[in-house]
Amino acid sequence: MLNLGLSRRSLLSLAKVAHVSSTVATKTTARTVTGLHLVRHALQKQSSQGLHSSTSFWHPRKPRNAHGGGNLRNHFGNYTRLAPTSLRLGVVPPDVNGLVPDHIQKPGYALRGEPSEWAAGIPINGPEDIEKCRHAGQLAKKILELGGTLVKPGVSTNEIDRILHEAIIANKAYPSPLNYMGFPKSVCTSVSNVIAHGIPDNRCLEDGDIINIDVTVYLDGFHGDTSATYLVGNVDKPGKELVERTKEALDEAIAICRPGVPLNRIGKTIQAIADRHGYTVSEQFSGHGIGKEFHCLPLIYHHDNDEDGTMEKGMVFTIEPMFCQGTAVGVQWPDKWTVATADGGRSAQFEHTIVITDNGAERLTG
Ligand SMILES: [Co+2]
Predict the structure, then answer these.
(1) What CATH number matches the domain at 75-363, 3.30.1330.10, 3.40.50.280, 3.40.50.920, 3.90.230.10?
(2) CB 71 within 8 A of CB 52
(3) Scanning 219, 252, 274, 278, which has the fewest C-beta atoms within 10 Å of its C-beta?
(4) pLDDT, the chain, mean
């Protein structure tokens, strides 16, 4: 779970989606305007310039909120689009002391919510640290699999969060997302048009949803991070294909990893698969180094990129591509966490933590 903000390329594709002239986007810098504000800004410009407005973009026919029920048919398929249920800004940070027993070893940010500064370089892990990453990774895998068994219509994402939280604690680990920069829950649950960082709530899963469950655990001083997208009941064909292709992209990307390979080969591999099948790749989130820290270098971009850096034995990082049906540009909800596609299309994600070995890569969460 690492939000990079909007890239310049994303801004340009947002302009395309909103049918706004590209001058609007080029005048707007990625760092000064985010998410929803950016969209509003673009649309104000758009109306003041009397340009054609896209109804499917900003006003999906009869927008329904997450609790409204009923399926919404649109050109991306047959599923319910989620929308914010509150305009309250931000979230209330969790009561970590009330939720996690004293005997559980907590990461440095757990009580204050502030992660530490990043180290300048990419950590190279020795055999002992890798073994600990493997333990954390294998627990994350087990918890995610438990999450998968809970996915069915009628189950709330709060319920999934509660059960996984208890299971993580029972295994003497800490749920890494809890109070990471104030995140209020123990796992992320991102449903249908939510790209990432969805917050578990009392919405019940519906037949036809897809849901990504993102699990990170902190065990014996090391984090392990994995996620998968599950089908809820009967999902339409475009939804199933989106999920399958995203998983395929992660598998293909892991398959090219070994010492000496440029890190940017990961993004090129993933982008090629997305292009072949007509999907877009989120550029707002990246994979990341992981180990003693939840997030560290290297950043792993999933889109076509020319960043520097070469894989070395002992590097531990995540690969976690997000494919989208329409635009990959996301807007952030008022909760300041949830990022959903700007056009309401669905997004799927899969993630593993891997370590670079002598002649390939091992899935620590596989
Ligand atoms: Co991650």
Answers:
(1) 3.90.230.10
(2) no
(3) 278
(4) 86
